[in-house]
Amino acid sequence: MTKTRWIATFSTFAIIGLVGCTHQATSTVQSEPTIQQANMVETQPTSKSNSSSAAESIDVSTPSQLSIPKLNIQAPIEETGLTKDGQMGVPDDGETVAWFEPGTIPGREGNAVLAGHVDDKKGPAIFYHLGKLETGDELFVSDENGNVLTFVVKTKQAYPRDKAPIRDIFGPTYNRQLNLITCTGLFDRKKGTHEERLVVYTELKETRATASN
User: Region Disordered: what ranges (predicted)?
Assistant: First the structure.
């Protein structure tokens, strides 16, 4: 993704709250990690990590399934983009995860992004326990070619709904990163959304390729 495309696509997020969570109907409070703010400035991508260099020969494709063993999550992944009001789209149900298709494919250079609900009209949803992930925990993404990508949690942060560091989450990097997003904090009934966004930052560890690759 070029810098120009990043500016055009993601500048709106800084104003209206990153991810739409209007399908939620319950009031949920989760244990919050420390909130850290970051200035959204234009800089060059960070240097490549060893794990990114080691995976350059693998041709990954569209993600199809997310697995997080620690949380007993096995979820299909659907493509999403921007909603009419400029937010990242989310799944229509609480058991599916959304991949931001205009951005990076998981396993390629850049920040790939997956989003899921914390709750819905039925109660807890797919990312209800996302905040329980800790540094070093592993999660797995399968793609349409049958490759299985292993990502490792690096850190997690909760941000006020309208103050998330958009560049850190969606912006350019030479590393192969995957960021998981959900709503968290108190549910603001007046605004119809949770007050905060939880982001779990992960980085590619390895890719198990299909025999044909």
Answer: 41-63
State the Cα–Cα distance between residues 34 and 156, nearest whole angstrom: 9
Question: What's the pTM?
Answer: 0.78
Instruction: Please report the sign of the dihedral spanned by the C-alpha atoms of residue 112, residue 118, residue 78, residue 140.
Output: positive
Which H or E run includes 53? helix 50-54
Determine the CATH number of domain 3-37+47-208.
2.40.260.10
pLDDT in tens, 76-96: 999 999 888 777 888 888 999
Amino acid at 164: A
Task: Give the integer Cα–Cα distance in Å for 142 and 152.
Answer: 15
How far is the CA of 181 from the CAs of 52, 120, 169, 209, in angstroms? 22, 15, 9, 26
